[in-house]
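User: Please write out a complete single-protein record containing the residue sequence and its fold in token form, without commentary.

AI:
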Amino acid sequence: MTNNALRFPAEWEPQSAVLIAWPNADTDWADRLGEVEETYIALVAAITRFQPVLICVADDDVQAYARARLSSARIDMGAVRFIDAPYDDTWLRDSGPITLKAGDGFRLLDFRFTGWGGKFDASQDDLLVERLSDQGIFANSERQSIDFALEGGGIETDGAGTLLSTWQCLHERHPDASREEITAKLSAWLRQDRVLWLDHGYLEGDDTDAHIDTLARFAAVDAIVYQGCDDPADSHYDELQAMAAELAALRTRDGQPYRLFALPWAQPIIDENRRLAASYANFLIVNGAVLMPAYGDARDGEAQAVLAQAFPDREIVPVPCRPLIWQNGSLHCVTMQLPRGVVAG
């Protein structure tokens, strides 16, 4: 594998599987475990319609329980593989591997996971990529440990060398580094030659410091789907309008404006006097489909229609995700896609 040949594939490129971790009583889901299990069952059912799913389980008892729940839901268990690996919580978008591809080989980038800047304990999660690699989960691959805090939810690539991120998140993780320094580091590690920064955009209830995957996502090299807000009375209105203006000012590699798809704004979801971050931008692309977070809101259908316009060749599959946002994340946050060929047989 030569360094110059390494490439960071886009999420819409062919995949081997999706990696998740099963919630259990030792995670932050303990108080609402039954509710979130229903979301995970629906998520696994949706993924396995299109490709395999790898499920990390904390121990044999968790595996037996998860297997029984999924089997009783009549899920194709031939598309499910369990992996024994301890974890603090289930946000694998941020603790899982960021995979680069070179020919038939792969490099697994193992960045530091610090619990979103030290907000939560992440000692087990920070070891997850190393433990999975040591178990031989990945084929024809090498792991590169990088002593730099970065979460998968904080970056978006178009697969052709352009990275999209929010300055707030990376600045929070690395307050002493300049934008130029961080741009150079990300470009080198992720093999990108353009980094597009957004200075606006946030969601109440989000403790990731404005991860890009809750705000704006590539749908193609010339298209971006983003979370809009059309309610002037909402506290997010000014910030998300400013983000929309930033996106409109961005240019593709060819110097053209991006095709932009604004997602609708769900009604506020309040839980125990706390507003939850219900973003439709937190979708997951799989082989032949886009799995869309649904919140039981009147605008779920409108969001599905927008994604159908942005991804005309893919089926749009809603997954009920209201239980997930109780812990400040959604569908994309609990998953990590693995490019085709990287999963060992």
The first strand starts at residue 15 and ends at 21. The domain at 3-339 is CATH 3.75.10.10 (L-arginine/glycine Amidinotransferase; Chain A).
